[in-house]
Amino acid sequence: MAIKEILTAPDPRLREVSKPVDKVDDALRALMDDMLETMYDAPGIGLAAIQIGAPVRVIVMDLAGKDEEPSPLYFVNPEILDPSEDMNVYEEGCLSVPEYFDEVERPARCRVKYLDYHGKEQVLEAEGMIATCIQHEMDHLEGVLFIDHLSRLKRERVLKKLKKEQRLAAAM
Ligand code: GNR
Ligand code: NI
């Protein structure tokens, strides 16, 4: 297992559409292990493969609290089914958009069909934080960031600040 570098906006790789996985094999499980370790280290509650530069449709998540047992979830080729009409607003953040948080509205509930760590098909009924998080991660698979759901003014302000920080960091 290894901790990988997390790409940050406006890195163009974060805009790629990730490709479906054709087989859940040991190489893919090694990627999922690295993703989970990277996510725990960050720390975050979810991570899409493209955030560590791998453009494949793989997501890891763990919504367990600090004092709870870890409960990792692995989603390969996830699909959202039956998003609810009723919406929920959550304050979101993203490891690829550091130090910025804002409210995003998304369907409150959905089902997710996916392959698990062993390649077995699963369907998860998601609501609350897990529904928000899975939709945030699904966006990454399409090259979409949570700031894309905000006004253009807000998004451009955030991106400008990130560019400036990266320029300063590169000059050090
Ligand atoms: O760690 C994360 N927290 C979070 C909080 C609210 C809504 C979504 C998230 S996902 C984020 C990690 C991340 O960037 N995943 O792509
Ligand atoms: Ni994110």
Protein model, in words:
The chain has a single domain (12-171), classed as Alpha-Beta Complex (Peptide Deformylase), CATH 3.90.45. It has 172 residues and is of the alpha+beta class. The protein has 3 helices and 7 strands, in the order αβββββββαα. The protein is globular, with a radius of gyration of 16 Å. The model has no long low-confidence stretch (mean pLDDT 97). A hairpin with a 2-residue loop joins β4 (87-94) and β5. The strands form 2 sheets. Strands 1-2-3-6-7 form a 5-stranded antiparallel β-sheet. A two-stranded antiparallel ribbon has the order 4-5. The protein binds ligand GNR and nickel (II) ion. Nickel (II) ion binds at residues 94-96, 136, 140.
Poorly predicted regions: none
Our count of helices gives: 3
Q: What is the third-level CATH name, the topology?
A: Peptide Deformylase
Architecture, according to CATH?
A: Alpha-Beta Complex
Distance between the termini: 30 Å
**Fraction of residues in helix:** 25-40%
> What ligand molecules are bound, each kind once?
ligand GNR, nickel (II) ion
Give a quick set of tags describing it.
single chain, 172 residues, alpha+beta, Peptide Deformylase, five-stranded antiparallel β-sheet, two-stranded antiparallel ribbon, 7 strands, 28% strand, globular, binds ligand GNR, binds nickel (II) ion
What is the fold's blueprint, element by element?
Elements: H1 26-41, E1 46-48, E2 58-61, E3 73-81, E4 87-94, E5 97-107, E6 109-115, E7 121-127, H2 129-141, H3 152-171
Antiparallel strand pairs: 1-2, 2-3, 3-6, 4-5, 6-7
The structure holds ligand GNR and nickel (II) ion.
Ligand GNR binds at residues 44-48, 51, 90, 92-96, 132-133, 136-137, 140.
